[in-house]
Fold:
Amino acid sequence: MRFRSIRPKDRLGRKGEKAAIAFLERKGYRILEQNLRLDPFGELDLVAEDGECLVFIEVKTRKSDADGGAVEAVGMKKRRSLHRLAMAYMNRRNRPECPMRFDVVAITWPEKAAPRIDHYRDAFDIPPPLKTDNK
Structure:
């Protein structure tokens, strides 16, 4: 039997997601999905309900802010990907008219220290579509 070792980065990410879930549940969110794979689009970290709103949550965990904060890691490419994933999720769950938003939970978790959790509610708008040069 072969065991895959978990990379430290992946271990930190999993710890961060667990901390994010506990944090959001304390704030009254109802977690619906975790690490949901929607082929061919990718994976959603968390899907939750906040009242009537469906919330797609990207969790970013870092040891420090040295390489830029976790929120900066959610660039335009990632935002477009999250939007495609959200649309696929809503269509597959037959909830196309449900209000939705995108949150980011940024966790800075230094070794041997307590994590700092920052929640960015409605962190970004739906990104504009990519422009093409079809003439």
User: Anything to note?
Assistant: The mean pLDDT is 86.
